[in-house]
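Progress report, Aim 2. The chain analyzed during this reporting quarter is listed below.
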Amino acid sequence: MPDESRPHRTAAVIPAAGRGIRLGPGAPKALRTLGGTPMLVHAVRAMAASRSVSLVVVVAPPEESAAVKLLLGEHSLPARTDYLVVPGGETRQESVRRGVEALPDDIATVLVHDAARPLVPVETVDAVVEAVTAGAPAVVPALPLADTVKEVEPAGKDQPEPVVATPDRARLRAVQTPQGFDRDTLVRAHLTVPLTGQGATDDAGLVEQLGEPVVVVPGHAEAFKVTRPLDLLLAEAVLARRRANDGY
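Predicted structure tokens for the chain:
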């Protein structure tokens, strides 16, 4: 539970050190452009759009840290929010840990957001923050699954994979970001779960390994992850609609 004596200042950590090879050759995924603007800038703006977020920490590829600082300075970002760039590590987990270690002491709530989810609406960000400040140690936005899911026994490349189970779709959710945490819980998770070994595919998974509860709030269809070229086309379409309707 949050310590009521601490201020409830919120920061967002954006790990952006990955190469994103599934998008094809070129710049790191976070620096690919969307509507003429790097996805990273869209993601930073999405976090800063929430009035609860007073600091955004971008964890950049070490060789790109200086360039990312210049990049953020070249784009219009909300003046009420502070920005910090730190060099990332070899894995996403290590990069998030470095971003959390760079936070000032007065941050009580931490959001961890994928740079590859550039169009998450501010309402989703606010819902995560509100759930953490209300007492949840870890919060994830998520959507119900539309497809039936099969559990399979992995086989060799291009080989048929036998189905071993069909999970109940009603109990499954597709998890998005930003994920929100009580800072002490997130720090403890990163100190407890080793950087090498099984780890987890998201920060909420690290908290689960502590035995702490993780709760779900409604996600949003536009908070999808840009991973493949088709996702980039969809993101361009969403952005074009926003600009036509809202002047985004």
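The mean pLDDT is 90. The helical segments are 39-48, 65-74, 92-101, 122-133, 183-192, 203-210, 229-246. These observations will guide the mutagenesis work planned for the next reporting period.
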